[in-house]
Amino acid sequence: MAAYGRRTESDRRRRNWDIQIEGNTVRKAAPEIYIPDQEELSPARKARRRRQKARQMSPAFVLFLSLASMLVLAACIGYLQVQASINSRMAAIEELEAQLEDMKDVNEASRSRIAAASDINQIYKTATEELGMVYPDDSQVIYYDQTEREYVQQYESIPKE
Question: Which is it for the CA torsion 14, 19, 20, 24, positive or negative?
Fold first, then answer.
């Protein structure tokens, strides 16, 4: 038993071999093998064991770890590049949206100015009061049918009846 009444792994192993198995298929008891505990090893021996474990990494395993590390690093760099690209595109989209809002405001202002300028009552008032225009008499209006085309050109001569 170890000091101070604590049971160590080797004590448990020894005790397990002492248990007898009953039945028609009794196994043979294995010979006792003494495995020293980590507590029983000297510091120099512990250091030697650690060095042996460190040497157990094969060059292939080190190469695998190196390649895996490089792959993870490349993935991180790629992720950061994609994130930066997304951020710059979002900033460009926000700038374009702001320009669109400004253009919509200018367009709405122009539309309201045009609507005010094309007010029929305002046009009639300006034409009659400022320019002295009047509506034509029925004798001054000539109606005609143009069957050749669907529209009238502005400078085409008016046909005589």
Answer: negative
Angle 129-135-139 (CA atoms, 0-180°, nearest 5)?
A: 155
**What is the spatial distance between Cα 52 and Cα 41, in angstroms, rounded to a whole number?**
15
Express each pLDDT in 133-148 by its tens digit: 988 888 888 777 766 6
Split at pLDDT 50, 70, 90, the class of 25 is: low
Kindly list the distances between the CA atom of residue 109 and the CA atoms of 49, 67, 97, 118, in Å, as whole numbers in the listed order: 85, 63, 18, 14
- Helix ranges (DSSP H) in the chain: 9-18, 43-55, 59-117, 120-125
Q: Note the pTM of the prediction, 2 decimals.
A: 0.39
* Per-residue tokens: 31: 């010979």
Rg value, the chain, Cα = 50
User: Residue 101: CB partners within 8 Å, gap ≥ 6?
Assistant: none
